């Protein structure tokens, strides 16, 4: 009996197994990438730009700034000498303050309870008293001690000198700034020393390295990476803090500016002179801090990032190379001749 259904030819798909259409791809290749729109960021940038432009426009057009007076005094002999006095006060207080602060820091880290107590008390007292009070106190030291001398403790004085002749105005300012700075420097140094892994000291002690050499060659070089950022910030604060010595009538920058605008009444341009010098000096200290930190980071970063000057030189070399390439003459390509032509 013949079948009512036709048999499918060989190699053809049966009617029940017809091939289906391939599904439409829905992967990330067909998704439309739309960049994010940061409308709030754009609005904030525009608002800040407008405010900065208004401020710069006010600096250029507002007659109260009196830029002519600023130009007359910014490099005057009196102001330059006052800047030199400010730098001297900062240098002396920084060097002496950090030397004393380092001693106090290791006294606090000592196992002696007497040294710990003395160092902690010193830091507590000098961080509690405002700098201006300390300066006035040292300025009037002769009212407390008429003479300063050397002798046997609780015994006769072998040598003495008048306080006013030994400690002048500049000396009193340096003493006050140094003792105030030492209290903060002690905590900065102590924090850096604590940050060094204690296992390195144990390894050094196991190798028989003396204690002083451990501190000088192992602890301090590693602690500098933690000390420098805070110490740089403290030195910059000290540079600006030297303006407090105006109460002692020392001819530093802020005092001389006050004297000048007290005579001619040009308050705003003279304050702008002081501001400009403080900004310049602070910027120079920041640059020095950057390079000192970079030097002490060599152990942690084997390939430190390029400095701004290195980036600028690299950028200029790139520009010169691009300009030289544009100036080179274009050499036409040789077209192959007909077959058999050897030219």
Describe the protein's architecture and organization.
A hairpin with a 5-residue loop joins β1 (147-151) and β2. The protein is mainly alpha-helical and 343 residues long. The protein has helices at 39-61, 67-73, 77-108, 113-128, 131-139, 141-144, 163-166, 169-194, 198-206, 211-241, 253-264, 267-296, 308-327, and strands at 147-151, 157-162. α2 crosses α12 (267-296). The protein has a two-stranded antiparallel sheet with strand order 1-2.
State the end-to-end distance: 86 Å
Instruction: Identify the overall geometry.
Output: extended
**Can you give the helix content as a percent range?**
55-70%
Radius of gyration, taken over Cα atoms and rounded to an integer in Å: 37 Å
Average pLDDT score: 82
- Tell me the strand order in the biggest sheet: 1-2
Q: Which class do the helix and strand fractions yield?
A: mainly alpha
What is the percentage of strand-forming residues?
A: under 5%
Order of helices and strands: HHHHHHEEHHHHHHH
Largest sheet: 2 strands, antiparallel
Number of strands: 2
Low-confidence segments: 1-5
List the helices and strands and how they pair.
Elements lengths: L38 H23 L5 H7 L3 H32 L4 H16 L2 H9 L1 H4 L2 E5 L5 E6 H4 L2 H26 L3 H9 L4 H31 L11 H12 L2 H30 L11 H20 L16
Antiparallel strand pairs: 1-2
Helix pairs in contact: 2-12, 3-4, 3-8, 3-11, 4-8, 5-8, 8-10, 9-10, 10-12, 11-12
Features:
343 residues; extended; disordered N terminus
Short précis:
The chain is mainly α. Helix content is 65%, strand content 3%.
